[in-house]
Amino acid sequence: MARFERKHMFTTIGRTEGDIRFSEDQFLSPLHAKLSWEDGRLDVRDLGSRNGTWVFLEAPYRLTDGDLILIGSQILRFRRLGYPGPHTAEADATKRMGSMTPSADIASLTQLRTDGSSRDIIQLSPGRDVHIGRERGDWIFPYDPSMSAQHATVRSEDADFVLVDDHSRNGVAIAARGAMPLQHGSRFMVGDKLLRVELPGGQGAAGGGEEGPTPA
C-alpha cells in the first residue's frame, strides 16, 4: 500500500511522466490520467491513454452509446442500435421469414479482445434484464476467475439501460470519458494500479494499492 498526498490543484499520473509515477506498470501510458480539484469537487480525466482510466461504480449507472465497461477482466462495449424501422414491402407481397425474438433489439454489448476486435455479442431489448457472471446469468464467463459468480446486471428501464453491480467482489467500472467526479472512498484504476480516494477533513488524498482486482 502506497499513499500519495495532493499538493496542487492538478495531479497527473503516468509511467514515465506526471506527479505520480509507476515506472514498472507496462499497462500505464507515459502520461495517463489527471486528477483535478476545482470548486470543491475532485474529478479524474483520462489523457488519451491506451488502456483507459476506469472508475468503479458506487451506484447504478445509466449507459450511453460507446461506454466501455470492465466486469472482471472482460471489457465490454455498449452500443445503441435504435429502433428498427419497418421493412420495405417485397414487390410480390411475399412476407419475409425471420427468427422469433422477444422484442426489438435496440442496443448491444460486445466483448472486446486485446486488439480491440469483437468476440461475443449479446443483444439488449426493452423489458429484458441481462445478468452477467462467471457461473450464473444470461452471459457467462466461466474462464474469468476475477469475475464473481453473478457479477452485474444490465437493467432495462423503458428505452434506457442501467448497469448495476450485483455486490461483486471486484466491482464494475466504466472507462472515463471527459471529467468523471470522484468522492470519498471512490476507486479508480490506471494501468494495473487500483487507487482509492480519501477526503479527510475536506482535503483530498489518493491512496493506492499496488495490485489490481483479486480473484473472486
Task: Characterise this structure.
The protein is an all-beta fold. It has two domains: 1-52 and 176-199, Tumour Suppressor Smad4 (Sandwich), CATH 2.60.200; 54-85 and 103-175, Sandwich (Tumour Suppressor Smad4), CATH 2.60.200. The chain is built from no helices and 20 strands. The chain has strands at residues 2-5, 10-14, 20-21, 33-38, 41-46, 53-56, 61-62, 68-71, 74-80, 107-112, 118-124, 130-133, 139-140, 152-157, 160-165, 172-175, 180-182, 187-190, 193-198, 205-209. It has a ten-stranded antiparallel sheet with strand order 1-20-19-18-6-16-8-9-10-11, with no helix packed on it. A hairpin with a 2-residue loop joins strand 18 and strand 19. Mean pLDDT is 87; it is low at 204-216.
CATH class bucket of the largest domain: Mainly Beta
Strand arrangement in the largest pleated sheet: 1-20-19-18-6-16-8-9-10-11
Which structural class is indicated by helix and strand composition? mainly beta
Question: On the 0-100 scale, what is the average pLDDT?
Answer: 87
| Largest sheet, strands/sense/barrel | 10 strands, antiparallel
Whole-number total of structural domains: 2
Distance between the termini: 20 Å
CATH fold field value of the largest domain: Tumour Suppressor Smad4
Rg value? 20 Å
**Beta-strand residue fraction:** 35-45%
Helix amount: under 10%
List key phrases describing it:
mainly beta; Tumour Suppressor Smad4; 2 domains; 10-stranded antiparallel beta sheet; disordered C terminus
Provide a quick synopsis of the model:
With 216 residues, this protein is mainly β. The protein folds into 2 domains: 1-52 and 176-199, Tumour Suppressor Smad4 (Sandwich); 54-85 and 103-175, Sandwich (Tumour Suppressor Smad4).
